[in-house]
Each structure stands twice: as structure tokens, then as C-alpha cells.
């Protein structure tokens, strides 16, 4: 009877959380810069010194987790529901704590035999993952049993507490207040589904109970915490407003001032009122001349309405200040007609933009445009590469490996790795 009850609850959990399995990645250079900035602050006061990569997933539930490649996944819900940048920093520090304390490598060792578990054990493991919103394990069990050795179950209770301590100690080292972290935990507690579970099933979850986490914060916080960065908070507020608007999250009552106008401008564009949207954006651009990401938003909106030439000009303004903004460069490249330019210019253009494929390896429009350019500039190995991707789906991996061995172009070798 107990087993049947577990199975019933596990099925409910699957229905509740399955949407997260198919979430899509959100690409936004401003957000990446913010996360890198926050990460650098965390690493500046700790001993871990390796680069952390970030991916933002479109998922309304506030969540974060790391993988074996030092990639930290954050949900859009985490950015939307974090009261301020300090709460976001605390969550990121918690995940970096897992890496620095070697929890990730320990978990890989601990789950080496997971593939030998019986089906009920696998189901229990899935429940443990789902309770804390880690759907990557679910993907592994459901769709690729052999991949489970590279996926994380849950960290132990002690490891979670250790990561919590790492996070709070990081805040103390940075002299940051902890009130917003407790506020975020309260939000997370209200959104969690623990009320569906009895005490026995809660044992599948390895995260400490919320009360324990409040106690860790209260016991470890320091009195002199006055290093709050208003400029960073202002940037975070604009990003939060953007995420709220584009993901359809109705929490705009939390926004104030220009951030709320920013939210409304994006909402106006999504509801078809371009004129009203541009009017608000122009006001914001004139007030916040250093925030070129508002200009980028204007370009995004103009592009969505078919004003390609105008959008490109605004993207160029953004890339002049942020030459590493590959998303703006991507939109410029895809929406500019280069057919009438001279071959020497097209050759430069081709090799300047070829690495965009690393960001969007499955974008057929991008691949097709690069393929056409590769033929104009007469680059045989690149031509072969794109023809394999576009027209030779059978034995694609074998053909790419063969081409990788044949070519002397190191950049092509690197990009082929994305597909094999």
C-alpha cells in the first residue's frame, strides 16, 4: 500500500513539473553581463577561480542548478522573483558553493551505479529531483537511460547546508544585507509543492527545510552590512522588468518608476501598440543614456514589426559599445542583404560571423545564410560542412568526423564538435 501511495504521488509530481522539462533557453547579453558581474563578486572573496558559464531557462518557477561543466542554469522565474540583486547573488553563491566544495564531483561518483537501480528506485530518484525543480534528471531517466551517469540527483542534506553556509558567508565577506534572501526564501516556500507530500516522501528531498535555512541566515549574518550597490540594483530592476514583460509574468505591481515604464513599453509592443511603446522607450533612452540595452530593446521591437533597416541601425549603436554582444550581431547579420557587396568584403564578413553558429547551432536560417556566403567566398571545407548539415542527414555524424579529420581549419574543427 505504501508503494502504491508513492507511485500515485510521483505521478502527480510528474504532471506538476513536466512543463519544466521542455523549457527553452533565453538569450540576453545584458543578463549575461549582470550574471558575470555577480559571479565575479562572489569569486573575488572565495578561493574558487574557474570560469562559471550561465544559461537562463524560460521557466516561471524560481530555480537554479549546476552541472559537471561548471554551467549554472537559472530560471527566468528566479530573476523575476528575486527581490533584489543580493537575493540572486545568494542563490548563485549557493550553487558555486556546491562546485567549490566538490559536491558535484562527489555526486557523480555516488550515482555511478544509479543505472542499475530497479524501476521503483529510479522513480524515487526522479521524485527527489523534481521536488527541488531539477528536471535534467527526469530527462535522463525518461529519454536517455545511459546519460544518467552525467546527471545529478540531489545533494545530501549536509552538502546543502554547507552550500547555504558558503552563500551566507559570501554575503558577509561582501558586506551585503541578508533581509532580501529571507524574503526570497519566503517566496520560494510559498511556491513550493511540499504541502502535497507527507513526511515520509519529504525524505526524498535533500534540501534543508525552510526553517533551518532561516536559522542559518540569522545565526551567520553580520551587523555591518552596508555595501549595497545601487547601480547594480538599478540594472537588475530593468532586467527584471524586461523578463516580466516578455515572459508574461503579471508581477508589475512590484515595479516602480522607470522600470515600470520599461515593462509597459514592452507590453504595449506585444499587444500591438507600437507607437505607444516607442514613445515610452524614447523617453527612457533620453533619461538613461548609458543604458544602451534600452536601445537594444527598441531594436528588437522594431525588428519584430518588420522595420529591419531601422532596427539594424540601433543594433549597430549597441554593438559599437558592446562588440561581444553576439545576439545583436546575429540580428544584424540575418537581416542585412549582402549580395551586392564585393567578394573581399563578403569573405571578411563570413569569417567575422561564422562563430555565431556556436550560439545557434540549430538555426536553419543562419546556417543557410552562412552556406550561401561560403559558396561566394569559395571555401570548400565550409561548403562541405554546411551541405552535410542541410542536405545529408543520413550518417551525419560519420560525415562530420571525416570532414573534421580532413580540414586544417581549427575553427571548423571546433564547430564540428558541436554536432558530434
Summarize the structure.
This protein has 420 residues and is mainly alpha-helical. It contains 23 helices and four strands.
Describe it.
The chain is mostly helical. The protein has three domains: 2-220, no CATH class; 230-334, Serine Threonine Protein Phosphatase 5, Tetratricopeptide repeat; 343-416, no CATH class. The protein contains 23 helices and four strands. The chain has a four-stranded mixed β-sheet. A hairpin with a 4-residue loop joins strand 3 and strand 4. Helix 15 packs antiparallel against helix 16 (308-321). The longest helix is centred in the middle third of the chain and has 18 residues, at 230-247. The radius of gyration is 24 Å and the shape is globular. The two termini are 47 Å apart.
Q: What is the share of helical residues?
A: 55-70%
Distance between the termini: 47 Å
Give the count of helical stretches: 23
Helix vs. strand class: mainly alpha
Counted up, domains total 3
Strand sequence of the main sheet, in spatial order? Answer: 1-2-4-3
The main pleated sheet reads as:
4 strands, mixed
Shape by Cα distribution: globular
Please tally the β strands and state the result.
4
Amino acid at each position: 500500500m505504501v508503494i502504491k501511495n508513492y507511485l500515485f504521488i510521483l505521478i502527480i509530481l510528474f504532471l506538476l513539473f513536466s512543463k519544466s522539462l521542455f523549457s527553452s533557453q533565453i538569450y540576453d547579453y545584458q543578463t549575461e553581463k549582470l550574471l558575470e558581474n555577480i559571479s565575479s563578486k562572489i569569486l573575488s572573496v572565495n578561493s574558487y577561480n574557474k570560469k562559471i558559464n550561465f544559461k537562463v531557462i524560460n521557466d516561471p518557477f524560481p530555480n537554479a542548478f549546476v552541472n559537471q561543466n561548471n554551467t549554472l542554469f537559472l530560471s527566468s522565474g528566479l530573476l523575476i522573483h528575486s527581490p533584489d540583486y543580493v537575493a540572486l547573488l545568494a542563490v548563485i553563491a549557493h550553487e558555486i558553493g556546491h562546485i567549490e566544495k566538490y559536491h558535484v564531483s562527489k555526486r557523480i561518483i555516488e550515482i555511478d551505479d544509479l543505472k542499475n537501480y530497479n524501476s521503483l528506485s529510479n522513480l524515487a530518484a526522479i521524485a527527489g529531483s523534481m521536488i527541488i525543480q531539477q528536471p535534467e534528471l527526469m530527462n535522463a531517466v525518461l529519454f536517455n537511460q545511459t546519460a544518467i551517469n552525467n546527471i545529478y540527483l540531489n545533494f545530501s542534506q549536509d552538502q546543502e547546508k554547507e552550500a547555504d553556509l558558503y552563500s551566507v558567508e559570501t554575503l558577509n565577506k561582501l558586506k551585503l544585507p541578508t533581509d532580501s534572501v529571507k524574503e526570497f526564501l519566503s517566496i520560494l516556500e510559498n511556491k513550493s509543492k511540499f504541502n502535497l507530500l507527507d513526511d515520509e516522501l519529504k525524505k526524498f528531498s535533500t534540501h534543508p527545510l525552510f526553517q533551518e535555512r532561516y536559522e542559518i541566515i540569522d545565526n551567520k549574518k553580520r551587523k555591518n552590512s552596508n555595501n549595497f550597490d545601487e547601480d547594480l540594483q538599478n540594472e537588475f530592476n530593468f532586467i527584471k522588468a524586461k523578463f516580466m514583460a516578455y515572459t508574461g509574468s503579471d508581477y508589475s505591481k512590484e515595479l516602480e518608476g522607470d522600470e515600470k515604464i520599461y515593462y509597459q513599453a514592452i507590453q504595449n509592443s506585444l499587444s500591438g501598440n507600437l507607437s505607444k511603446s516607442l514613445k515610452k522607450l524614447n523617453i527612457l533612452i533620453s533619461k538613461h543614456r548609458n543604458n544602451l540595452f534600452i536601445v537594444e530593446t527598441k531594436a528588437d521591437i522594431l525588428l519584430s514589426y518588420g522595420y529591419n533597416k531601422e532596427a539594424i541601425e540601433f543594433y549597430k549603436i549597441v554593438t559599437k559599445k558592446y562588440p561581444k554582444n553576439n545576439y545583436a550581431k546575429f540580428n544584424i547579420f540575418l537581416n542585412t542583404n549582402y549580395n551586392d557587396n564585393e567578394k573581399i568584403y563578403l569573405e571578411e564578413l563570413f569569417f567575422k560571423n561564422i562563430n555565431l553558429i556556436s550560439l545557434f547551432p540549430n538555426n536553419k536560417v543562419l546556417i543557410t545564410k552562412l552556406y550561401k556566403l561560403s559558396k561566394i567566398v569559395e571555401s570548400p571545407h565550409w561548403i562541405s560542412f554546411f551541405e552535410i548539415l542541410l542536405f545529408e542527414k543520413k550518417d551525419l555524424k560519420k560525415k562530420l568526423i571525416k570532414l573534421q579529420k580532413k580540414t586544417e581549419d581549427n575553427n571548423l574543427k571546433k564547430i564540428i564538435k558541436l554536432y558530434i
